[in-house]
Amino acid sequence: MKVIRGTIVSEGEGGVYGERMLNGCRVWDPHRSKFPAAILNGAPLDLSSDMRVLYLGAANGTTVSHVADYVETVYAVEFAPRPMQDLIEVARRRLNLVPIMGDANRPEVYGCFVEAVDMIYQDVAQPNQADILRKNLPFLKKGGIAILMLKARSVDVRRPSEEIAEETRMSLREMGLTITWSGTLDPFHKDHTCMLCVKEA
């Protein structure tokens, strides 16, 4: 990851969501994107130019655009029509970004468009967040990285966030994933926990 004066940035064309520029690079705002928030909170995350990424819950393309600045290919899955329009516009300026309109709960529908990937980034705030990741694990290479951005309040607003997080960690282990790091995204994103996992070889 590229850091300029303590600020995480990516090299790419600006103007995606009004992001600031620093020395010709795009500032990756941790208040707008969970990826840099996790890094600032200690997650050992990195991206490289030879990586292929499956991004679930691409929304308007804020985080996806930064990821695309770093990696070889991003397959960006989004279900809602309005954010998808913005995502397509982002993809016009990033030819390595493949926008896919689809339901992350149904990977069999878009599977024909996706190659084996080195990383899955799951940011779909639904009650079955861990199960969505499980359904998409066949795309992930052995030894690949799975990132779950867990939004506890989307699972159950009545239960403590840490209780939901621990339950989710147990589910990930049952999927054959090894959790290498887990931590909250406070103060950048409330009630969010990042779980960094590796698919066992």
TrEMBL record:
Keywords: Methyltransferase, RNA-binding, rRNA processing, Transferase, tRNA processing
Pfam families linked to this entry: Fibrillarin (PF01269)
Binding site for S-adenosyl-L-methionine: T62, T63, E78, F79, D103, A104, D123, V124, A125, Q126
Entry keyword annotation includes tRNA processing: yes
GO molecular function: histone H2AQ104 methyltransferase activity; RNA binding; rRNA methyltransferase activity
InterPro entries: Fibrillarin, SAM-dependent_MTases_sf
A Gene Ontology BP annotation from the UniProt entry: tRNA processing
Record family assignment: Belongs to the methyltransferase superfamily. Fibrillarin family.
Descriptive protein name: Fibrillarin-like rRNA/tRNA 2'-O-methyltransferase
Origin species: Methanogenium marinum
Gene transcribed to yield this protein: flpA
